[in-house]
Amino acid sequence: MYVGMWMNREVITIAPEASLAEARELFRKHRIRRLPVVRDDRLVGIVSPGDVEKAMPSILDAQNSQETEFLSATTQITAIMTAAPLTVSPDASLVEAVGVMRHNKIDGLPVVEEGRLVGILSITNILDAFLDMMTTEHAGVRFDLKIDHRSGSFYKMIKAFQRQDKEILAIMQYHDFSRDQQLISVAIRGREHDALLDMLWDSGVKVERVTPIT
Hints:
Elements: H1 3-6, H2 20-30, E1 35-39, E2 42-47, H3 49-55, H4 65-74, E3 82-83, H5 94-104, E4 108-113, E5 116-122, H6 123-134, E6 140-148, H7 151-163, E7 168-174, E8 181-189, H8 194-202, E9 206-213
Antiparallel strand pairs: 1-2, 2-3, 4-5, 6-8, 6-9, 7-8
């Protein structure tokens, strides 16, 4: 799964010479949490609503609203933006992108290709990808299974699905679930699975849960 498959391609951006007032309006209008700062399609920085608010006078310190309006209208984005922000390539894997976001405690990444901004990846995009991988539009069943770490155990599990002529729609493996077992979720098409259950148990697979998919 690649970043380019899930990123937002229609990105709201702002110019480095734009004012804080313009940024505040974009945040309000589009309800976004980050604004890439772009010059000639090149990413030069990024700004968040928090960056903007930190630059504004406190309501306790400001003499009056005119001071706030003046600073908002005259302060440029370049004064508050984060220059050279972290980015990701559209060809990078979602796992790589999540690792960067988790390590740096950020909830979004600009997507850059050859220096040009081509998209933005958010936590929402990643959750959408997870849901798409683990759900289906067709009626089916999801099995939560446990197998041991022996090399042939995974093969035996898959063989049971194959022998029962079941179409696997999605599969997710948590190899390090425990010292002795790995946890695997498998979604299949169709609801008839009694014979499959028997074959899984006979193959040494522990069936933890069976959940209908609607």
